[in-house]
Amino acid sequence: MATGSVLMGLGVTVTLSTTTSLVVTMAPPERVGAVSGLSETGQKLGAACGVALLGTIGASVYRALILESTPGTAGAAAQSLSGAVREAGRLSEEPAAALLAAARDAFASGMRTAMVAAAIVIAALALAVPVFLRNAHRDHPAGAAPDREPVITG
């Protein structure tokens, strides 16, 4: 977990600072403040929406699989892994073990599905960015740098 978190943090830091620098550098000087604010707002909104969407995907897969693998499961166990753990505490040993195993498998499948969806979106964006940015320097002569240095924020 720690290694993955560190790698993700490094990737996000490089991506966000590079993106902000590109956006602010390409903005007209009189609009830099507004553009920077809009860029930051877009990043925060995108992160929040991404977490919500991936959470919804994971929860939907969890719910579908737990209900499929343990018919009659309702209430907290059908809503979340922690709910299934609480419900298992109220059951005898064998049904509790079956519920916990099904809940763990359903949770792992939900997380896997959400991460595959995220990987597909990231891959699609990685392919789309060069297309959308192919004319990013159209206001500058070929190979010439903008009039000012990039501003790194974030």
TrEMBL record:
<keyword id="KW-1133">Transmembrane helix</keyword>
<dbReference type="InterPro" id="IPR036259">
    <property type="entry name" value="MFS_trans_sf"/>
</dbReference>
<keyword id="KW-0812">Transmembrane</keyword>
<protein>
    <recommendedName>
        <fullName>MFS transporter</fullName>
    </recommendedName>
</protein>
<feature type="transmembrane region" description="Helical">
    <location>
        <begin position="114"/>
        <end position="133"/>
    </location>
</feature>
<feature type="transmembrane region" description="Helical">
    <location>
        <begin position="45"/>
        <end position="65"/>
    </location>
</feature>
<feature type="transmembrane region" description="Helical">
    <location>
        <begin position="6"/>
        <end position="24"/>
    </location>
</feature>
<dbReference type="GO" id="GO:0022857">
    <property type="term" value="F:transmembrane transporter activity"/>
</dbReference>
<dbReference type="GO" id="GO:0005886">
    <property type="term" value="C:plasma membrane"/>
</dbReference>
<keyword id="KW-0813">Transport</keyword>
<keyword id="KW-0472">Membrane</keyword>
